[in-house]
Amino acid sequence: MIKLTVNGAAVEFDGDPSMPLLWFLRDVQGLTGTKFGCGVAQCGACTVHVNSEPRRSCVTPIGTLAGAEVTTIEGASGKETDAVRAAWVALDVPQCGYCQSGQIMSAVGLLSANPKPTDEDIDLAMTGNVCRCCTYHRIRVAIHDAAARLEGWSHGRSRLRQSAAVSARLGRARSRRRFPPAACGTRAGRRAGRRVRPQCVHPHRARRHRHRAFQAHRVRTGAVHRHCHHPRRRARRRLGADAR
Prior knowledge:
Strand order of the largest sheet: 2-1-5-3-4
Number of helices: 9
Number of strands: 5
Shape: elongated
Radius of gyration: 33 Å
Structural class: alpha+beta
Order of helices and strands: EEHEEEHHHHHHHH
Distance between the termini: 112 Å
């Protein structure tokens, strides 16, 4: 008989001691917030806390946890957990959400041990958690945001949104610098526009525009008939008109 504590409740298990903790939680206890990802402790989706430390439950036999305290995403609580959840919601970190229970448990474990982590600390602590949606940048910013919330200071605007706003302002500034609206009606502005705009036009479209301009020039100068641009067709039309 194996006795342990799961989310503050005492439980007993008299089954196979080699059963992984993950399947004990999901199949026996019905706690499905902990996910199965790889089964070899390489993705981090199954992360739980065992005695307040992150542990990969897919490779942890239940027989080695006698008297241990296990905390899953359903039972996680405390100021670190509240700060991480608030930062996750504020920054819209999840996309598909499958790995996020493991990401949150690893982030809570990091902040419990290190309330002011650096980028290197975050990368080291979260390196075992894989996100197929590639939300790593948001996760890092959210952990910094959660650390700031633990200090009692909350971002008025998150760093991610600030960087997005700065990027948007820089983009607008670049567009104004490349295409100055005040100079568009001047000869210098048109010359500057010709130097810049072909970079933004598809080469096939630019070639088609040049061809049309050349044909219009030939029509204006009388080199070709406006309804018959091809020289051979023009010759056939002349021969036909002479024959008639």
